[in-house]
Amino acid sequence: MTVKPDSYKPFIVPVFLPHAGCPHQCVFCNQSSITGAHSTPASKDVRHQIETFLRFRHKQRRYVQIAFFGGNFLGIRTPTIKRLLAEAAEYVTAGQAHGIRFSTRPDTINRQRLASIKDFPVSTIELGVQSMSNHVLQRSNRGHTAADTIKGVQLLKEFDYEVGVQLMVGLPGDNTKRVHASARMVAHLKPDFIRIYPTVVLADSPLDAWYKKGAYVPLCLADAVSQVKDLYLFFKNENIPVIRMGLQATEDFTDGSAILAGPYHPAFGHLVYSEIFLDLAMSAIKSENPNGDAVALHVHPRSVSKLRGQKNENIKKLRVKFHLQSVKIVPDKRLKEDQLKLNAFL
Ligand code: SF4
After folding, report:
1. Relative to the CA of 23, which ligand 1 atom is closest?
2. Do 284 and 135 lie in a common domain?
């Protein structure tokens, strides 16, 4: 039985299973670095992780999901999958959570495996798609093809799961043309939501060695933000929500020990939104062609910091580009969060 969530913003109770069920070593991956964990948790640790996070649940966050992340869930041995799902399901039965989600590789989806989990309250399955270019998948040693993803998504939809797709930019062999082509193919599959990650060089990943000998050059932060922005806007136009952009900050990431190089930023998604609002402001000012030396930009209160940009960078850029003395930001609740209006010249 599957239970579909009523919101794309559930309260997530994460359980990390680094490299569990993973038959490969993708060049960009070192799951221990990503999760900050270094082994598969035992049952008591799974319960401890769940119970610790449940304490942080805000009463207003209605929909709670227990999420198995960090490995290839359907690649784990079936008895272990069932044990983990049964442990999580106890919290669903007790009313402390509403569903379960997990991430898995496209090539581990098949009817037999989906049949083996059908009695658990799994609502959402995320696929590590990363790219729909077979060239990029092969260079990244993903061990699956775009055809596996197409089959996997179709099967998950047939079983009525909510389907998430994870995509990456900056993979070996990738370029903007391939990134855009991947996005078009993914949109055609109509997933329920997308996550987008820029490729970074994790310590002790295969990419670490490639980077050190000059065989891989990561995207710079500006190019990564620009590529992810294009994807975000494309999927928005397709009515497919992008629920995350950029890696989750962990202690290992912020102290710099896990990431050797690449476009990591603890507020990557905010950088993308800031660039979108900068573009909006620029085109509004260009089309209005103001005579004075001051403008007022109206945005929803929740979008004020996105329009300002990191350290007010957007305001500085607008002032320089349009020779403005002042750029005033006016919070306006009547606007949608993605809207900007240039209503008044001061
Ligand atoms: S990205 Fe996923 S499939 Fe690739 S090595 Fe990491 S856990 Fe395994």
Report:
1. 8
2. no
Residues 194 and 174 grouped into a single domain: yes
The ligand 1 atom at the shortest distance from the C-alpha of residue 22 is 8
Structural domain span for residue 304: 273-344
**pLDDT above 90 for 282:** yes
pLDDT score for 7: 45
Q: Are 72 and 137 in the same domain?
A: yes
Tens digits of residue pLDDT in 99-124: 999 999 999 999 999 999 999 999 99
Q: What are phi and psi of 330, to 5 degrees?
A: -115, 115
Mean pLDDT of 224-242: 98
Residues 205 and 279 in one domain: no
131 domain-assigned:
yes
Counting atoms of ligand 1 from 1, which one is nearest the CA of 71?
A: 7
- Supply the CATH number for residue 238's domain: 3.20.20.70
Residue 4: inside a domain, yes or no? no
pLDDT of 30: 82
Q: Does the predicted model carry a pTM greater than 0.70?
A: yes
- Distance from C-alpha of 312 to C-alpha of 317, rounded to nearest angstrom: 9
Among residues 346, 284, 258, 336, the alpha carbon closest in space to that of 31 is found at: 258
Best mutation site among 16, 17, 22 for ligand 1 pocket (most ligand atoms within 8 Å of CB):
22
pLDDT in tens, 20-68: 888 778 999 986 555 444 456 788 888 998 988 888 777 666 789 999 9
What angle is formed at CA 271 by the lines to CA 266 and CA 272, rounded to 5 degrees?
120
Residues with CB under 6 A from ligand 1: 19, 22, 24-26, 29, 31, 71-72, 105, 128
Distance 72 CA to ligand 1 centre (A): 7
Task: Tell me whether residue 125 is in a domain.
Answer: yes
| DSSP designation for 248 | P
State whether 262 and 299 are in the same domain: no
132 class by beta-carbon count within 10 Å (0-12 exposed, 13-18 middle, 19+ buried): buried
The domain total for the chain is 2
Asked if 159 and 305 sit in the same domain, the reply is: no
